[in-house]
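Entry 14. Ran structure prediction on the chain below.
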Amino acid sequence: MRWLVLMILLTAGQALAAAEPLDPAGAPAPVRRAVFRAELAHGRGDVDEAVTILQSCLDGGEDRSHPALRYRLGAYLLEQDRTDDALPHLQAAAELAPGAPPVWTDLARATYETGRYARAARAFAQAHAAMDAQFHDGHDEHDPPDPSLLYYAGVSWILAEHPAEAVDVLAPLAAAVNDTVPVAWVQALVSAAAELDQPERAAAGVA
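Output, structure tokens:
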């Protein structure tokens, strides 16, 4: 499933630019300074320094648990392949900024990579829901939700051995596609429906 991680990596950076809840402008001054310094370090390619700056700021006081800091710390830890360390920060960011798609996307990636497939499925679905909410909030700069996020949610449910939940996600997704349904989506839907011994539920994807 390396393709899944690659797709997430390619899209996460683009999504961050449009995620207002992750803007540090309204954060306490120490958080704003730390985020600024960390982004400069990250821009130089010094991810270790970026992580150190953000972690030191977070350790400096209870009022510093801001989604702008938590998300970046989690994202930078993911870059270091420190997925287990990234998880609590991404989860905290999701709780603090539930409307920010990049948070849910990176949380989905982290939970997927660590084999927490049910949590990954929910996070992928939340990422799609957050993108959909942004798209319909009247601001033109937001892109429409990426339907492949729901496909990834379905795949995660299959890996979590919850085929019913997978079909519940994949069947309406396949039915909603106006053009040809991607082969991988059909395969996932048919697999989940077969596991349930309900092949008729895959009809939308193979019609």
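The two ends are 26 Å apart (CA to CA). Will compare against last week's run tomorrow.
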